[in-house]
Design a protein that fits this description.
Number of domains: 1
Strand content: under 5%
Radius of gyration: 24 Å
Largest sheet: none
Oligomer: single chain
Number of strands: 0
Distance between the termini: 54 Å
Structural class: mainly alpha
Length: 363
Amino acid sequence: MDILPFHFRTLQLCGMWYEDNRFVILKIIYRITAMFVVFTVIIGQFIRLITMQDNIDDLSDNLFITLTFISFCLKILNFIIRRHEMEDLLHDFRLPVYQSRSFEEEKIILEYSNTAKNIFFFFLCITQISGIILLIMPILISTDNVFYLPYKTYRPYSTSNISFWITYAMQVFTSFYGISLNVSLDTMTYGFIILTVGQFKINSYRLINCTLSIKDFIIHHKLIQNTAIKIESFFICVIVPHFFFTLLVICCSIFQISQKPVASYEFFTICMYIICILWEIFFYCWFGNELGLQSQSVADSLYSSKWLSCTTQEKRNLWLAMLYAQSGSNISFHGQCTLSLRTFLWIIKTSYALFSLLKQISN
């Protein structure tokens, strides 16, 4: 895999992606088995949420984990059902015009590819560390040989003796598998946006240094715009509900922190969880904002090009391209929920407002 290799390699290990037809039956069986274990835990979380009593503390305690799992399910289903669109997106980045044609362009591509890779490993490390702490702390703090499961889910059986350890093993597998898959799917969104930003930068570089004809420059720019639209089409249907769930998750998490002793493991794990969520949303908005800025900067690079030596027709084409580029490329849902820093601030403010409301209801 040449595009976002670590993301797709992780998806291969999780049974969610393959490009060859060898051992297809075994791959399908592995995927179904893994999905069965994961969805069993998720369904248990959801059943417990809808059957619990009207206790605001228990509700918020279970809600933020359940919403995270529901958002995770939407990402999985979107990726599986729309696989052909992902293949089309990968095809775009393999087009000859997207490849480097000089040492400077190679440096640009390498810079943005390394950024996508570093973000993937950054998120994988902090989320796996948080997951490990969440899994082992209930065992470490147990007293009188009374153990508690990391995830409070509905179970139609008694979790005593061997049943407890089987359920614990399922939750451990779900945690490691779910975190790896969720990080891959989330950072894949950043990755494609980052690579698109790099293409806009290459487009500007080629115009300024006259490495392309005016016609080829416009074709390249149009292809990048179409790629950005495909990224928006593929990911926005899960980004919007994910942002909505994040509002509630941050709200419930902060409420839970306010109810826990500062020195408790619950306080520490929830803090780690909130940090991961905030970083995740921040990177969505940051790189979406970078996409808009870099796409608009293409219009500015036209002034640095050798446009005075162009023909009248070429000047007209450049003028139209400049007008088209000034609008920029943004990832949004019909103009709403745009990936920008303004959206990130709105999420933080709204989450705090919901927390204040939840606090008043609790009191």
